[in-house]
Specification:
130 residues
Length: 130
Amino acid sequence: MGVLHWNDGLNVGISFMDADHAVAAEQINALAAAGPAARLPLLAEFIDHCRHHFAREEELMGQVGFFALGCHRGEHQRVLAELRQVEAALKGGDARDRYFTEELPGWLMIHRNTMDAVTAEFARTSGYSG
């Protein structure tokens, strides 16, 4: 049983965002369940997933003229910097258990419920149908 229980009720209604969020939840569950030695390659995959997902979201926001693009992009940049710090801590021997079992899953849910939900609603009302 994982730390995140993703389901269709958590979808924001933009297909690529919904698919990417489901993958992110799976990856976070794997990170939370993994032992310290196994976390580095899993974290590298998660960071790569985030970079691609964030780029797709930012492209969407630009296409629809999303009013809070700068704020949303800034949060993406903050999270990527945080993930790089966590990666360095793992390399230094810090297992960061609480980060993977509480902080990262909590961040995904807050981000989905706030920034991503607003972005998706704006995109849909602007005519985006992807």
